[in-house]
Amino acid sequence: MTNPFFKNFGPFTIEQLLLLSEIDNLNNYSKIKIIDIKDLDTAEVNTITFFHSKKYATYASNTKASFCVTNKNLASILPNTCSAIIVENVLKATAKITKIFYPDAITDNFEKNIYEIKETSLSKIVDHGKNVLIGENVQVGKNCLIGHNTIIESNVIIGDNCSIGSNVIIRNTIIKNNVSILDGCVIGKKGFGFFPDSKKNIRYPHIGIVIIEDNCEIGCGSTIDRGSLSNTIIGKNTYLDNQVHIAHNNKIGSNCIIAGQVGFAGSSTLGNNVMIGGQAGISGHLKIGNNIQIGGGSGVIKDIPDNSKVMGYPAKNLKNFIKDSK
Predict the structure, then answer these.
(1) How many Cβ atoms sit within 10 Å of the Cβ of residue 225?
(2) What's the rounded Cα separation, in Å, for the pair 224 and 42?
(3) Which long-range contacts link 155-162 to residues 24+ away (Cβ below 8 Å)?
(4) In this predicted structure, what is the pLDDT of residue 189?
(5) Cis before residue 314, ω within 30 degrees of 0?
(6) Residue 324: is it exposed, middle or buried by C-beta count within 10 angstroms (0-12/13-18/19+)?
(7) Could you name the CATH architecture of 12-105?
(8) How far is it, in rounded angstroms, from Cα 150 to Cα 133?
(9) Handedness of CA 18, 20, 23, 27 (dihedral sign)
């Protein structure tokens, strides 16, 4: 369910993909058809994936993809069933291939096909404020509230007993039951994914979605970006304070409490029962375990094992932090 809302323009032969992506690496499989691009973990036969860091070696060695964009130093880790496509810049090449499959996922322009809620069937089942706008492919469950000046853009599913505040923008998102989205949130827009280039920066298409599980609360002014190739997920009974930023592909576990102005870079994973103090920063591609406490203002730049308490920059064991601060 990585991209249920974006149209896949495939399949393409591997020859077409590489030519359109300006990749000179055809070998002997030019006519094989590829149906989709996926991450290493969810890839299937007749899909293409990418592998750019040894951090994902375990996933790479077990991937079911037929092709993988990678570099010559990592290619040997792939299984024999996966053919390596060697390039100099893995992420840039992957962005180009993703754009071929999903050209509509590059930009997030304003919705043209949008309606005042009173013009839709939702007006009879949703308690709503003034100036509420609804896009296409929107579903809302029972006993829901939507505040003033809120825009529910295309491709949104909202469960039962949800409260959506005023001045909220939501798109490309699935919200489960008993969720509160407070005023001023922006959820499901594209992430900050691009690759600098001397002539023109290359945008990475974000074809994932945001999934917010049951009984969550998202504080005022928070932003949650949709995923790039995977989904951004907020686990059950997790509460975000005001002005929290969750970047693309993050997986937040259940029963987490995240205080105000905490920021997450992309593609990190938090376990369950994680507490994070205000103004902490979490770097990308990290694994934060279960039952973790992270002190306010900390900078987390490496993985944290289960049952840890950390603080400082770089974040370290709390006892060591207190000792070093004396």
Answers:
(1) 26
(2) 22
(3) 155/4, 155/5, 155/188, 155/209, 156/188, 159/214
(4) 94
(5) yes
(6) exposed
(7) 3-Layer(aba) Sandwich (3.40)
(8) 6
(9) positive
β-pair partners for 224:
187, 246
User: 232-234 and 251-252 as β-strands: parallel, antiparallel, unpaired?
Assistant: parallel
Please confirm, yes or no, whether 248 is among the known catalytic residues.
yes
Q: Tens of pLDDT along 21-54?
A: 877 665 656 688 999 999 999 999 999 999 999 9
Q: Tell me the domain boundaries of the chain.
A: 12-105, 115-325
CB 169 within 8 A of CB 218: no
User: Domain 115-325 class?
Assistant: mainly beta
For 244-287, write each residue's pLDDT tens digit. 999 999 999 999 999 999 999 999 999 999 999 999 999 999 99
93's tokens = 């090449």
Question: What 3-state DSSP class applies to 263?
Answer: strand
**Confidence label for 104 from pLDDT (cuts 50, 70 and 90):** confident
Provide the pLDDT confidence category of residue 131 given band limits of 50, 70 and 90. very high
pLDDT digit string (tens) for 197-234?
777 888 888 999 999 999 999 999 999 999 988 899 99
Helix and strand numbers, DSSP H then E, in the chain: 4, 37
**CB contact burial 29-47 (16+ within 10 A = b; e otherwise):** eeeeebbbbbbbebbeebb
User: Could you say which of 52, 245, 248, 285 is catalytic?
Assistant: 248
